[in-house]
Amino acid sequence: MTRLQLRVDDLEWRSVDDEIVVLDLASGSYLTLNGSAGVLFRRLIDGATSQDLVASLLDEYDTTAEQATTDVAGFVESLRANNLLVD
Predict the structure, then answer these.
(1) In a 3-state reduction of DSSP, which class is residue 86?
(2) What is the pLDDT of residue 47?
(3) How many CB atoms sit inside 10 A of residue 66's CB?
(4) What letter does residue 27 receive in the DSSP assignment?
(5) Residue 1 has what pLDDT?
(6) What does the pLDDT read at residue 87?
(7) How confident is the model over 6-13, as a mean pLDDT?
(8) Across the beta sheet with 48-49, what order do the strands follow?
(9) How many CA atoms, within 13 angstroms, populate the side-chain half-sphere of residue 47?
(10) Exposed, middle or buried: residue 63 (CB in 10 Å: 0-12, 13-18, 19+)?
């Protein structure tokens, strides 16, 4: 299974209360992540597989494996669309 890794160049993030604020210095855009997105992002800081991310959601929330898999796929796609993952 492929390990997903956040881009490290020109990318800054900070935890602020229950949210994570991500600033892409290259594009000047930022994201605010909370809830399950925050859980997933924290797992990606050191790298994780999609399967690891699904397991994290199943550990944290009362959800099904099918829903967790769908949520992870959407989250990963959003990170890719924003050029935040290393391919």
Answers:
(1) strand
(2) 93
(3) 9
(4) T
(5) 76
(6) 72
(7) 92
(8) 48-49, 3-6, 85-86
(9) 8
(10) middle
**pLDDT tens figures, 39-82:** 999 999 989 999 999 999 999 999 999 999 999 999 999 999 99
How big is the chain, counted in residues?
87
d(CA 29, CA 63): 31
Residue 27 in tokens = 């594009």
- Buried b / exposed e across 36-62, counting CB within 10 Å, b at 16+? bbbbbbebbeeebebebbbbbbeeeee
C-alpha–C-alpha distance, residues 30 and 58, integer Å: 27
Residue 79: which residues within 8 A CB-CB, separation 6 or more? 4, 6, 44, 85
| Pairing, β 48-49 against β 29-33 | unpaired
Say if pTM beats, i.e. exceeds, 0.85.
yes
